[in-house]
């Protein structure tokens, strides 16, 4: 026991709690089982320990010890690779795949969350050692709140208006509103689609959003989330019954065609609205210098 | 080059509509054509697309 024991223990506990707070199983169903959670809690524990130890190292003037944080960085990059590989392997067996963009988003979140654990542990131990335990508790609560804020990105309902439009056929062409989806030849399939299919039109609220929802990864994420939450009228060997999203080239609206098992319009609209906007799909054409100049001069 | 889509079969009621490399199934009526195309779709794991009332193609996507 020395003067660093309690601060270190405190920092580690704060870090592990932070990781627990960020580890939720939701409709994305990942990580689902105990083993997946154990892996991430253990990694969170290591991250907490690294963040905590950095403070006594600095106080004891052991500056070289801080270089082990670089090992941590490569370690957590490895976590990202691990998540990416696992999810990509599993994706091949999904009836409606997640798509690479969604997987990359999840993998980034796993890496990022370990760094957040390092920061909160570091700050907690720092507060304890420099001031006292009360300050440390205050700092921990603030970092928990910040983590909560970091965790929630925006969702689709913030950037698009969602409307229901029943899918219909014009000859062999399947349409949602006036957006062409695909060609379905067999009358039998057409009947199934009219009976079980649902269509939604997503209208972008501004110019930036157009390119975001046009992103194929973002579109696949919408299809995956709807299919996970509402079931999917599909099996292997029925490629005609595939949920699809196509784009109206004129105005950037997208037409979502899905085949849910449960056909509740309002719930489907809520689910589409709750789909996360994928970090990798976000585009900001309005931030471009040429676009800004144009707007300034006109 | 990777070819992602391929026409697996053509089903028609009018022989003069199609010719060439893929298997061609000639039917006497629209009903027979629907039936045949539905079976082929399931067997070949492709989608039956209608190019006209007389011609379906089964495409692997």
From TrEMBL, chain A:
InterPro entries: YIEGIA
Pfam families: YIEGIA
Spans traversing the lipid bilayer: 6-26, 38-59, 126-147
Annotated keywords: Membrane, Transmembrane, Transmembrane helix
Protein's UniProt name: Membrane protein
Gene source species: Pontibacillus yanchengensis Y32
TrEMBL record, chain B:
Pfam families hit by this protein: YIEGIA_cap (PF21835)
Protein name, as recorded: Uncharacterized protein
């Amino acid at each position: 026991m020395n003067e660093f024991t309690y601060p270190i223990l405190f920092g580690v506990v704060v870090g592990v709690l932070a990781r627990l707070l960020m580890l939720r199983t939701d409709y994305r169903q990942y990580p689902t089982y105990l083993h997946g959670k154990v892996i991430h809690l253990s990694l969170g524990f290591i991250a907490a320990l690294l963040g905590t130890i950095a403070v006594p190292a600095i106080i004891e003037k052991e500056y070289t010890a801080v270089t082990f944080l670089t090992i941590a960085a490569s370690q957590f990059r490895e976590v990202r690779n691990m998540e990416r590989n696992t999810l990509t392997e599993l994706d091949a067996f999904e009836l409606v795949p997640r798509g690479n963009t969604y997987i990359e988003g999840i993998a980034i979140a796993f890496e990022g969350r370990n760094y957040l654990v390092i920061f909160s542990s570091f700050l907690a131990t720092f507060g304890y050692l420099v001031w006292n335990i009360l300050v440390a508790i205050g700092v921990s609560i603030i970092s928990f709140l910040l983590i909560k804020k970091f965790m929630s990105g925006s969702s689709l309902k913030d950037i698009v208006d969602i409307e229901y439009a029943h899918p219909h056929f014009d000859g062999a062409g399947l349409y949602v509103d006036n957006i062409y989806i695909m060609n379905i030849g067999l009358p039998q399939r057409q009947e199934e689609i009219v009976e079980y299919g649902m269509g939604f039109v997503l209208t972008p609220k501004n110019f930036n959003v157009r390119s975001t929802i046009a992103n194929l990864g973002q579109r696949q994420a919408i299809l995956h989330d709807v299919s996970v939450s509402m079931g999917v009228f599909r099996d292997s060997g029925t490629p005609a019954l595939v949920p699809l999203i196509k784009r109206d080239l004129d105005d950037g609206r997208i037409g979502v065609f899905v085949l849910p098992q449960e056909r509740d319009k309002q719930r489907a609209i809520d689910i589409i609205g709750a789909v996360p906007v994928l970090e990798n799909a976000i585009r900001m054409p309005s931030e471009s210098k040429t676009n800004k100049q144009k707007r300034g001069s006109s | 080059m990777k070819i992602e889509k391929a026409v697996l079969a053509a089903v028609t009621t009018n022989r003069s509509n199609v010719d060439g490399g893929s298997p061609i199934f000639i039917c006497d009526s629209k009903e027979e054509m629907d039936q045949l195309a539905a079976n082929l779709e399931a067997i070949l794991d492709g989608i039956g697309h209608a190019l006209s009332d007389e011609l379906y193609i089964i495409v692997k996507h």
